[in-house]
């Protein structure tokens, strides 16, 4: 675990920009990681360098060859990060766009006369893509229903809908609202058992910064990542597509190579910044294994990240020191319950008698950055069945500390003690 290595958490934090202070507001605790993780300082430096290079790819000059080498390394590092064998790695405009392309290609390449299967837990990125192409193909779009109490969707619920007619299936690996993960290998295996030719696509966008990814073991056909949620930067997403999905017809330049997914010239800096991410994970993992293999060190980093965040989640939900956790505080309702098992870095909650936006503002005044989630097209699938108009989402990452969790719990404790002192609109009122 990261905190078991003296000084390592400080070293980790030193590699990220703005880890304890906002460049606009000053000192703060950053618990808005699900909205986009902090950036590695190396990513910022690489982004600036590549933004300044005037040369293009595919030319016979040293600068162009250097760009091509960075792209090749980036693809290799993305493949290593996912442990994806075969198939193709490609970069798109965002993780959402990547999911749309994977789903579209699968729907148009699958055998006729079937159904498309997803779940109500999914982010609209995959669910909207599936709805769109179910409409185009005329296939039913079936939805496994997530459990409000646990904040996830079970294998058993998926199995209720799996038949030989499944043509395209989507699985969200972790919910960005409940923070609960899904058993991707088991669900994929269940689909393969009854519909071996189905295309299975995984939304790994929320999961990617929190733990282990192993596409080779999942037995799926597509995986999507948004690098800005994995310590890189905005402006691109990347995906992996299996050989069989890549063989399907897709948008391409006429006469171009059949295996190519990318349209036009991509930003070499996008690939290079993700190499920075994998380099960082390689460095972190070297503190937990003596292995020289790069993938083994990335896996060791993933395990250390998962364990550290589990400790943070346990403290947030069940207390640390003399501070009680959210699960014991009066008036606090936790979305998805108080379980730490399968939870990945996110706690969403409401406080009775306090409007969520006011609570976000109060925490901001206390120097703690969190985010409101509303019953809208992004989060209505989770909030509407609970009868909630909004909630606040608190999201941590492995560079966060127990001291920061304690500071958050103290602030929420103050909020619970004073929630009866005024109306639901807290506004600028300061407690404590």
UniProtKB/TrEMBL annotation:
Residues 29-408 form the Aminotransferase class V domain. It holds the Pfam family Aminotran_5. It comes from the Bacteria. One of its GO terms (molecular function) is transaminase activity. The lineage of its organism: Bacteria, Pseudomonadati, Pseudomonadota, Alphaproteobacteria, Rhodobacterales. InterPro entries: Aminotrans_V_dom (IPR000192), PyrdxlP-dep_Trfase (IPR015424), PyrdxlP-dep_Trfase_major (IPR015421), PyrdxlP-dep_Trfase_small (IPR015422). This is Aminotransferase class V-fold PLP-dependent enzyme. It comes from Defluviimonas salinarum. Coiled coil: none annotated. Keywords: Aminotransferase, Pyridoxal phosphate, Transferase. The keyword Transferase applies.
